[in-house]
Design brief:
Elements: E1 2-10, H1 15-23, H2 27-36, E2 38-46, E3 49-56, H3 60-67, H4 71-79, E4 84-86, E5 95-96
Antiparallel strand pairs: 1-3, 1-4, 1-5, 2-3
Helix pairs in contact: 2-3
């Protein structure tokens, strides 16, 4: 299991819309996220910054390779293009945070 933390920005003024869309998250997307290996997945918002945390099995690369091509995931990503500034840097990598410490 690998812990994953990443951040991204949403467009100013879309905070309520971002929340509403997650309040109504599609069941097929939730199943795809779980099937890809994500667990204990949480999103937090402070202003327009989103902080994401997940525990991923067996590792992030494998889980992302499973989730990326999933049809529900692709539709969700397309639907959020008007809300999210960018999930990745210019090389296509998530804006990941390095783990410093954790308490089990």
């Amino acid at each position: 299991m690998e812990r994953l933390c990443f951040t991204f920005e949403i467009r100013p003024g879309t905070e309520a819309e971002y929340q509403q869309r997650h309040d109504e998250i599609w069941p097929e997307l939730v199943e795809a996220i779980k099937a890809a290996g994500f667990a204990n997945y949480s999103l937090f918002r402070r202003g327009t910054t989103i902080y994401a945390y997940a525990e991923v099995s067996p590792d992030v690369a494998t889980a992302m390779a499973k989730l990326g091509p999933n049809e529900a995931n692709q539709r969700w990503a397309k639907w959020f293009e008007d809300v999210i500034v960018s999930l990745t840097d210019e090389s296509g990598q998530l804006y990941r945070a390095d783990e410093v410490w954790h308490l089990d």
